[in-house]
Amino acid sequence: MRMIRMKNGVRTFPAQRGSTPRRTALRSLVRLLAIMLATTAAAQNAAQNRPWCDSGLSRPAPQTATASELKDKLREATNTPDPMGNRLLPISLSITLSGIVQLNSVHQEHDEDITFCLKLDQQSQQHLQHELGANARDLPTEIHMEIVPYALDRSGNAIFPGWQEGKKDRVLFDGEPIRINTNGWSPLFDNLSGKDKRLDGKHIQVTGSLVVDPHENLRTSSKGSRCGPQGCLELHPVVAITLLNDPERE
Q1: Dist CA 184 CA 9 (whole Å)
Q2: How many CB atoms within 10 Å of residue 234?
């Protein structure tokens, strides 16, 4: 039982036993570590449970004049973790789009593809519409991006560049072979200068093949893919990335 002492008419309480500056500092350190662990866990959970890129198509996308050539190249790329010719629907062999990389969207998939979601800027939305023609309706403003590790034919020749390929056949980042570090919970892009190697939030330009990937668009779970009835509109595979200036800072 704690004793209340009276001193000059004011109640005072004796200090708790063991309450020392060292113990107080230890408690503060424990709280700080708990906050850091919780923050890290939240970030990891956000990356692993990120919302799917909202690039779904509600209507079929018209093919361009280069769709046939892209179809042949996709079928040639048989030596790859995820054969693309069996699933991807070709739209355009090459298109360049720009925008902002959505936060927590950069991810390494089970087949080693590096994927992210690009929120298209206004100019690229117009460019996409022009590429697909006036008959293309309800086009998404986000595009799903996939950088494949490699895409070879049966003889081992590179059909598309990959991020694990040798320098000659690697995806380009600002004109140089891309360097991706996948040792952490989210891929880091070592081509970026400075301490921040994350692609999240960066304003970039991406060149790649425009396709529709059905993914699991028939899945009815509300927690599943947000692809539309026709699948997801993607740049798959990506062949080059260029870092752009932040328009808000110019």
Answers
A1: 62
A2: 24
Token pair for residue 34? 């708990």
164-177 exposure pattern, b = at least 16 Cβ within 10 A, e = fewer: bbeeebbbbbeeeb
pTM metric for this prediction: 0.76
Rg (CA), the chain: 26
One-letter amino acid of 137: R
pLDDT digits (tens, 9 = 90+) for 47-86: 444 446 889 888 888 889 999 999 999 999 999 988 888 8
Residues 6+ apart with CB under 8 A from 235: 95, 97, 118, 143, 144, 145, 146, 206, 207, 208, 209, 210, 211
Specify the residue for token string 């925008």. 99
Give, in order, the Cα–Cα distances in Å from 12 to each of 9, 18, 76, 207. Answer: 9, 18, 85, 73
